[in-house]
Every structure is written in structure tokens, then in C-alpha cells.
Amino acid sequence: HGWSEALAGIKSPHVKYICPHAPVMPVSLNMNMAMPSWFDIIGLSPDSQEDEAGIKQAAENVKALIDQEVKNGIPSNRIILGGFSQGGALSLYTALTTQQKLAGVIALSCWLPLRASFPQGPISGVNKEIAVLQCHGDCDPLVPLMFGSLTVEKLKSMINPANVTFRTYAGMMHSSCIEEMMDVKQFIDKQLPPV
């Protein structure tokens, strides 16, 4: 709900916005207490074990949402995936593993999950030219800016580096800001002009 409110301020009339809720599940990092989560998070360091099965299942769920929109008449190359934190990580992973050609990815305050599972060098597949807007606060205590920086370098080795934009925001923590939302709006309007 929070993101649908944030998007309300930047909506373009010709674009449909869908903000799915993550399912509620026990999260290891949260002492196994249930919370909205796309997949389990075991730790927050770069060498932490990752919930591979959960990440892959969540990506399949996102691909099903894309399929539904395609059935509704929206070509996949007019669809942008986006998310914040875990949702951004899921958006990146899904875009890099799907056979559906997408218009772009908005990855806010996040990282690339299962990064070691990707081959070295450029990916083959329909999204090797995908446009990516990656944004990160330089004071993020939860997902450090270093994770964002490492992710953008990995992305630039996998897809056309000219299509990867990395923006940082001074003083921003694990959150968003007006400047970031304006950058998101500009990206959406550029990737999805009215038809």
C-alpha cells in the first residue's frame, strides 16, 4: 500500500501500475517471525546463504503476473518490473531470468540475488539490452550502498552497460525521497511513451 501511495504522485495516465503484496512468511533474519516477504532472508552479508528455492518460486510468481497482463493485451515489452529492497532484488532476478522481453527494471535500495548463479560475462536471452534504473541511498544501514555498487558493476558485465543507470541520494537511508521518485517517473515515461 505504501508504494501505491508513493506512485500516485508520479503516475502517468497511460500507464497501469500494479503493486502486488509479498506473501506473509517466517523470515530467518526476523527470528523466524512471520512478515511480508518474497523469500526468506538468512543474513545481510554478501556471503550469507540465500533462499534459492524461495527466490526462484517468487520469480515464477512475478512471471505469472506478467503473463496475466500479456493475456490482458499489454505486450511484455511495455512492462517494467520494479521494487524496493527485497522487491527490487526480485525484479532484477526475474528480468534477468525470464524469457519475456521487458521494457525495463527499477531496482531501489537492493542487490542481485543468486549473483553467483549467473555466468560470467554478458547474458544471452531477450533482456540483454534491458534498461535498468538502480537507485540507492548513501546512508542505507540495512542494504549498504556497497551492495548497490557491486550490483551495478555485475549488471554492467551482464547487459549492455549503456542501459544501466545508477543514482545515489545523499543522506537517504533504507527509504525513498522525492528526488528518487522523480527519477523513477522520468525512467517510466522514457521507457513507456504513450502509444
TrEMBL record:
One of its GO terms (cellular component) is endoplasmic reticulum. Its EC number is 3.1.2.22. It catalyses: a 1-(9Z-octadecenoyl)-2-acyl-sn-glycero-3-phosphocholine + H2O = a 2-acyl-sn-glycero-3-phosphocholine + (9Z)-octadecenoate + H(+); 1-hexadecanoyl-sn-glycero-3-phosphocholine + H2O = sn-glycerol 3-phosphocholine + hexadecanoate + H(+); S-hexadecanoyl-L-cysteinyl-[protein] + H2O = L-cysteinyl-[protein] + hexadecanoate + H(+). InterPro entries: AB_hydrolase_fold (IPR029058), LYPA1-2/EST-like (IPR050565), PLipase/COase/thioEstase (IPR003140). Acts as an acyl-protein thioesterase. Hydrolyzes fatty acids from S-acylated cysteine residues in proteins such as trimeric G alpha proteins or HRAS. Acts as a palmitoyl thioesterase that catalyzes depalmitoylation of proteins, such as ADRB2, KCNMA1 and SQSTM1. Acts as a negative regulator of autophagy by mediating palmitoylation of SQSTM1, decreasing affinity between SQSTM1 and ATG8 proteins and recruitment of ubiquitinated cargo proteins to autophagosomes. Acts as a lysophospholipase and hydrolyzes lysophosphatidylcholine (lyso-PC). GO terms for biological process: fatty acid metabolic process. This is Acyl-protein thioesterase 1. It comes from Mesitornis unicolor (brown roatelo). One of its GO terms (molecular function) is palmitoyl-(protein) hydrolase activity. Residues 1-190 form the Phospholipase/carboxylesterase/thioesterase domain.
